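Last lecture ended with a question: if I hand you only a sequence, what can you say about the shape of the protein? Today we answer it with a concrete record. The protein is non-specific serine/threonine protein kinase. Below, first the input exactly as provided, then the predicted structure, then a couple of comments.
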Amino acid sequence: MAPSSIGRYTIIRPLGAGGMADVYLARDPQLNREVALKMPALERPSPDALARFRVEARAVARLEHAAIVPLYEYGDHAGRPFLVMRYMHGGSLADRIDQRRATLAEAVAVVDQIAAALDYAHAQGVIHRDVKPGNILFDDAGAAYLTDFGIARMIDAGGGKSLTQTGLIVGTVAYMSPEQALGRPNLDGRVDIYSLGVVLYEMLTGDIPYQADSQLQQAMLHVNAPIPSIRERRRDLPPGIQAVIERALAKEPAQRYAGGAALAADLRRAAAGQAIARAPQPAKEQSRGFPMWLMIAAVAVVAVVLGMMALGNDRQPPATPASASARSSASADRVTPAGGGAVVEQPSPANEPTEELQSIAVETGPTSTAVPAPGETATPRPSPDAPTPDAPTPTAPPPTIAADTEPEALTIGRTDRGTPVEAVRFGDGAATVFFIGGLHAGFAPATVALARQAVDYFTDYPERIPAGVTLYIVISASPDTSPAVGELAGRLNSNGVDANRNWDCSWAEDARWRNQLIPGSGGPAPFSEPEVRALADLIVAEEAAAVVFWEALAENGLSSPGNCGVRTNVSGPLATLYGTAAGYEIGDFEQETGQLLNGDASNWLDSIGIPAIAVLLPGYETIDLAANLAGMLAVLEANGR
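The predicted structure:
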């Protein structure tokens, strides 16, 4: 029987119940709003259940993202903890799939939003491990949100013990990655990418890719069955969709998309009819399947797991309006645990807790502002032996000449006016580096001039590009800006949008510039501007190892790491490397200047795990080529090793 109140919250009705937790629709009398309230199901929950509940509270509390259901409060009532979250009036993706399959445009929109949420969570050290339609909710406007971090795995900066034991298998079998099904240790965010791939397949076809008479058989299909053809089910889909599905559902994590942004970018391209590269294939001498001894062991493991699937009821329904029909009975050939996910222990030799994934070292770091524009190119090209200020003395052998350094001119996209966004590519190495000028071409013309000088330099001296590097130099990322040096007009494109306020980190339609709100400068939505979308898609598709945006202005030069939150995730070392070589200051732009940024490029890239920095030149029209050449060479050498 549902309680009449929990804490200050008045209970309206149950939303769902499971073996692990109950969820209620409640009203907050203080704020006069409906909320979803979740608490452990048993009056005397086990220590393990309480620990998992605390994990969810900690996980959601550290995640502040536009596509993650926010946590309002974590409290205690009569000795039982509870969570209070936003109530999502739009229902779940599971409800929508039960009604009809999604259009391609609808699927692209959902994947865009959930992929961004997953990348952000992974960057914060949280792996969801139970991505499925029932855990994707919608608000009144139809925006998708990720919820239910009840079995999330957290990677703490200080390390720590896992709540799971060696071989513990968690998740929902229908959406479970092969490595989850096999109980492999040290899972990473690619398990969530696999699950999102299953969700994508189900959205477009109405069915999960692997159907079986039992959960054991279904788990083994994830491990060893061929990836089904989605176009046999939906012949109206563009051919590239199959390539996206194949890479998302690759059996081995190394052959999958590294992050959600890469998956979303490929899906957008495939939806537009563009060709998509197939997933990287294993070496020919490797078997595409699993060895027989491993299959036998896997069957034994999963049999233990599924024999204990009663614990699957530990997974509770999400905070959403009650569905008209039970998801578990919507289709007889879908095999899913009655309560959702499974949390089952696989025996281990010592049955000792395992260490969590290795800790992630994060440095406090910066953000960026604006920059770029066309400009003078009269500065003489330096020779590769010319002295550069504060350039570090090389301690490693000179880089090997790249196998393919012949420059290739590219058009990576076009603006709404049809103006091309031009770039030059050098080399064909495994590590991709981007140097980008002209993010605000009319505002800081030195950034475009610097990009042109860099193209000239590496065309003349291709031996300075290591063989292990592919280098992209983008001349002017926002070529339609007006020539207005140091003024707001020089930052805005033909739609009145600032190209460095149109990315999906703290985005706002009325974005800040110098702590003033500029109406419409963020665009109607993140990545609304085609030049921004084209650049973001290219960076993500190339899985960039380093991205440098040239901007302005900082009197002594500034190397500022991307930072979409409290601290930088992966960009600190890049900022230190470039800043030290260039002789520039190293620090967070927002902290250094007291300015708050919306929709910043380097901040967004850092949030999805791509090292990115903003290098602020000492003047709007000051190229400072020698210093920046030292920074460029340091970045190339570091990534070419």
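Comments.
1. The radius of gyration is 26 Å.
2. Confidence is low (pLDDT under 50) at residues 155-168, 283-297, 303-404.
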